[in-house]
Amino acid sequence: MPSQASSYAAQSADTPLAPFSFERRDPGPADVAIDILFCGVCHSDLHTARSEWGGTLYPCVPGHEIVGRVTAVGDQVTKFKAGDMAGVGCMVGSCGHCPSCAEGEEQYCETTGMVGTYNGADAVLGGHTFGGYSDHIVVDEKFVLRISHGEADLAAAAPLLCAGITTYSPLRHWKVGPGQKVGIVGLGGLGHMGVKIAAAMGAHVVVFTTSPGKREDAQRLGAHDVVVSKDVEEMGAHRGSFDFILNTVAAPHDLDAFLTLLKRDGTMVLVGVPASPHPSPSVGNLIMRRRALAGSLIGGIAETQEMLDFCAEHGLTSDIEMIPIQEIDTAYDRMVRSDVKYRFVIDMQSLKNG
Ligand code: NAP
Ligand code: ZN
Question: In this protein, which residues make up the domain named Enoyl reductase (ER) (predicted)?
Answer without folding.
Answer: 12-346
